Amino acid sequence: MTTIDSINNWFIQNFGAITTEQVKGWFIYNPDEKLLFNTGLFLGLFLVFYFVYAFLRKTFYLRLTYVILFSLFFYYKSSGIYFLLLLLSSVVDYGLSQIIFKAEKDSTKKIYLIISVILNLGLLGYFKYMNFMIVTFNDMFQGNYKLHDIFLPVGISFYTFQSMSYIIEIYREEIKPTKNYIEYLFFVSFFPQLVAGPIVRAKDFLPQIYQKLNLTRQDVNNALFLIIGGLIKKTVISNYISVNFVDRVFDTPLSYTSFENLMASYGYAIQIYCDFSGYSDMAIGIALLLGFKLPENFRTPYKSVSITDFWRRWHISLSTWLKDFLYISMGGNREGSFAGYLFPSIFFFGLLLWGITNYNTSVIPLIVASVSILLFCLSFLLSSKRKQTLVTNLNLFTTMLLGGLWHGAGAQFIVWGALHGLALAVHKIFMELFPSKKDKSPNFLWRFFSIVITFHFVVFCWIFFRARDFETALQVINNIGQLTFEPELWQTIVIGYKNVFGLMLFGYVWHFLPETFTNGMKSVFDRTPLLIKAIILGFVYWIVYATAVAGSQPFIYFQF
Fold it and tell me: Residue 5: which pLDDT band, with cuts at 50, 70 and 90?
């Protein structure tokens, strides 16, 4: 009895007494306290959920239904009543997928596929782009339409793309539909990757549903290693850098020095990597504990030797989705399409118009616009296969433009996508003009400079991605452009932000560690005695609790 009282007193001293209002708060939606992987609430709920899940492991539909209910609750805690939107979307898509599968005529299948795509993109377009279109219309035609009060459901882009992949793969006869709605809803609503990916392909995930659950000791080790690493990336590195430095500079860049703007750009690069890859690691780890394997989403992207290599390492599930369902659908490197010609034309016309409009203020916008158009033209004019390269680059550029727009409704996101699209086109012609020898790997010096150049281009693009609007991005770039060599000032700033810069350094060192070193750490963790693992897990518990006290920061990709 004394022991129980002692434990109770210790709990109250450290965590406070649990009230009825607190218990209600665990289960009722609060827009300021979303259910995140890096919160103590999720940890507690997941432990209870997993305890019951273990008893249901030998069942099938009961286990699927149980996970679906928890997934819907998880989404309700993130987006409130809009979990019904997920249900509505799933009912419509499931019905259309059945019609497409049973239809005998290709024309009938295509009609219902188009209906599905229009409904999905229409739903996504309303919630994500309606106000953007209103603002654009008002600016272009002096309109006075009022903005709508629209709530953006968390992760709507992710589950929309996932649902679309299911229907498209049925249309292409790559998969057969699920046996019933329960199985389909399990696929669409699976909570580990529901709100921020990885985007799971139906042909990769659905077969796992029908397999017998087989959770090995190695799977548990892998899952815990990923979850612990993801928590450290998110709670220790990303959150601290964001709150204490990056957000402040990007909110008011003109209030800070050129050096601070530069360091904030480097800071955001490691922040978004730790934030998003940390979430993906946790999602993959949690799914693994449930007996499901999700695809790898990040592969040390800042080690990339080219922009093409970067997109093979960054947000792999999205880049693969865009390639398979957008780039190839538009014709890929085989043939042109209306969209492939339309979107680049609109972008470059708008870019040139921006340069001409701002000519009286500065000649730089016009130079930027002219050089961009020239680079894109040279990317196919210098090719030995001009027509094919033109088609490829147009489709590639369109894919990246729409990929940028997928991330957010704003000119800065479109520019971010365009920069990557242009860089991919330039890299393709560079590789054609200066092909690398297949039997000879590049020397260390060439590889080093390739990584440095690629990394800094990506960091430059992140400025547009992070800035709240296009004008703010230009302010940051202009501020960095005025950088002068002032070692004493730099030293003062570094000392003032020593904790932030220390964590940035830690994040980059962790990222650039050789793969052999990381694998060695994993091997040591696997062989660690149970007691040591318990201590490590206890430390992670403390991290989660400390984060909850400080106020958890939402994952960056929740807004997409």
Answer: low
